[in-house]
Amino acid sequence: MAKYKPQHARMLFIDRKIQEGGFPNCTTLADEWEVSSKTIQRDLDYLRYDLDAPLEYSAKERGYFYTEPRYQLPAMDVKESDLFAIYLAEKLLSQYEGTPIHHNLCQVFQKIEDSLPSKTSLGPASDFSRFSFFSASQTMIRPGIWQAVFDGLRTLHSLEIRYQTAGGPGESRRRRIDPYHGVRFEGDWYVIAYCHLRKDIRTFSLARIEEALPCQESFTIPADFDFQTMSASHFGVHWSEKETQVRICFSREVAPYIRERTWHSSQQVSDGEDGSLVLELTVSHLFELKKWLLSWGRHAKVLGPVELARELAAEAAAMVKLYDGT
Length: 326
Hints:
Layout: H1 5-19, H2 26-33, H3 37-50, E1 55-58, E2 63-66, H4 80-91, H5 100-115, H6 145-155, E3 157-164, E4 172-185, E5 188-195, E6 200-205, E7 209-218, H7 227-230, E8 244-250, H8 255-259, E9 268-271, E10 277-283, H9 287-295, E11 300-304, H10 306-323
Antiparallel strand pairs: 1-2, 3-4, 3-7, 4-5, 5-6, 8-10, 8-11, 9-10
Helix pairs in contact: 1-3, 2-3
């Protein structure tokens, strides 16, 4: 991609010079851009024959001009494979429905489409009805919350929020936060922020923010805050400074599904003689990992640490009690 940038910049330069009406020619353009006249001539041929520019040479003025004054050079020229990727990406926008950026992204894709040369199109073999995208379930974010948090992230201004804790209804509390970083994970949006109530960096779900008001106070993100480093060993959207080594044995029935995917950057896989599989991870938080392990039911058994195994055993016993007698 990088090697095409100078040529594209040169094309924009040539187009601008022609638009200015000064009747530039190969010699003047080559001298100003510091390339050979042959290079400029190839660019002009490309303008005329590939981009269908209304370009003509004036013998009287000894330079080039556009026969159509309102002609505009297309902003980009893409291959069919590039255009195919653009259309696929546009379909993926459905996962952002319900957020302010969905409308903005649709506008961006419309601008991309408008900037393409009119003759750019996909071949007859391209049929987008053969592609479908199933988005994860979406959390419901109250009107105005997303925009308030986005503005806080963009302008580095604190927010006064009323937040519903995970404990259940009726337990919302007011607190002031400094939003540092936004995260989307499995259909939910989160903001990583410094909480003035807890005096610590916490993760807040936008779906549980009941009210968000901008504050006049601005803040500065600490120089030692590095989201990529901080979340390097996370499993899910939650993390802490403490890391835990986890070993899980998966039955042979589900071992192929575990083996075919990268679940975590630290994972190590070893095969058992009976077709089972042992997955080893080093994670910084167990909340999301517990939910993931429970989703595998009897096909996943925690080998360590013992505390995690006991917590899952207690959860399984509670589930048995819940369904006892049904």
